[in-house]
Design brief:
The protein is mostly helical. The protein has a domain of 51 residues. Helix content is 80%, strand content 0%. It has 5 helices and no strands. The longest helix has 27 residues. The radius of gyration is 18 Å and the shape is flat. The termini are far apart.
């Protein structure tokens, strides 16, 4: 295989996984929520309700991504461990407080 051919392939990296998850979140927040709120009266708070439910899944997503990337990309994790540990501690703390409530 040629070196230039190998460079052009899209490789899945932890950074790319986080970017994809962030893009899906932005897509949900700015496309899906407004579409779901069309046709509801002004008194209903559909966008706020959908956002409130989405926050839990956003945090769970980043928490699970930090665990999966540490296991599957161990060489990357050894080099950039502080990123995964920081995400794990922040999201884990939020989830722990949520589960206690």
């Amino acid at each position: 295989m040629d070196k230039t051919e190998n460079k052009n392939k899209l490789r899945l990296t932890p950074k790319l996984i986080h970017i994809i998850w962030g893009g899906l979140i932005i897509l949900y927040l700015f496309v899906f929520i407004p579409i779901k709120s069309i046709g509801h009266s002004g008194g209903e708070q559909v966008p706020l309700t959908l956002l409130a439910y989405a926050l839990q899944w956003i945090i769970w997503g980043y928490f699970l991504i930090s665990i999966v990337t540490a296991v599957t990309f161990f060489d990357w994790f050894k080099k950039y461990w502080i990123i995964n540990v920081l995400i794990f501690i922040l999201t884990g703390g939020i989830l722990f407080m949520y589960l206690l409530a």
